[in-house]
Amino acid sequence: MPRPARVSYHDIKRAVTSRIQSRIWPQGTLLPTEAQLCAEFGCARATVSRALRELSDQGVVTRKRKSGTRVAILPPERARLDIPVTHRTVEDMGAAYTYALISRAEVATPAWLTAAIGAQENAPALHLTALHSADGAPFQLEERWILIAAVPNVREADFAAITPTEWLLAEVPFNDAEIAFSAIPADGNLPSLLNAAPGAPLFRLERTTWLEGAPVTRVHMTYRPGYQMRARY
After folding, report:
1. Per the confidence metrics, is the pTM higher than 0.70?
2. Exposed, middle or buried: residue 174 (CB in 10 Å: 0-12, 13-18, 19+)?
């Protein structure tokens, strides 16, 4: 009679992450106890404990003594450094944050985007442009594409009331991400939207996220003149 396959902590991490991503366990959900997970997976408690500890280190879950383990609420996006939500960046500067949705349209993914993120040709996407301000002055221009196949309920989202980043973190909290930084000239509508002199260098962050290999969103975040991004390691 063949012996049953041994369950590793990697197996438990994958199972827990899959349940979170599929919304079986939404954000804030209290997970089963370590003893219950041991019984379900047929493994030692140390195996479960290691899996949950690593998920906690990654920001996927939060663990508190005597309170149990919960799915993290609005976990940080990670790519070697944390990229904070814009309103937190502004408020950390001691400024008042405001947000305005400039445009919203359902489009077919342009050819350059299809090639850049591995999307299907002419895949339907929601194209959003929004302006984030600090103390009433332009701070960041956000241009984003969200693949509708990856997040079908995006069509019902009210992006006049919630920023795309915060909505996506709540709906698709765990993704692989690729981040690029560059300097671009202030051209097109950037001078008027960001109060920049024509041709002035502007800092741009580009981020693409995937869920289980499928593209979810691509965003270009262009900051006002003089902006510097800082990170601690």
Report:
1. no
2. buried
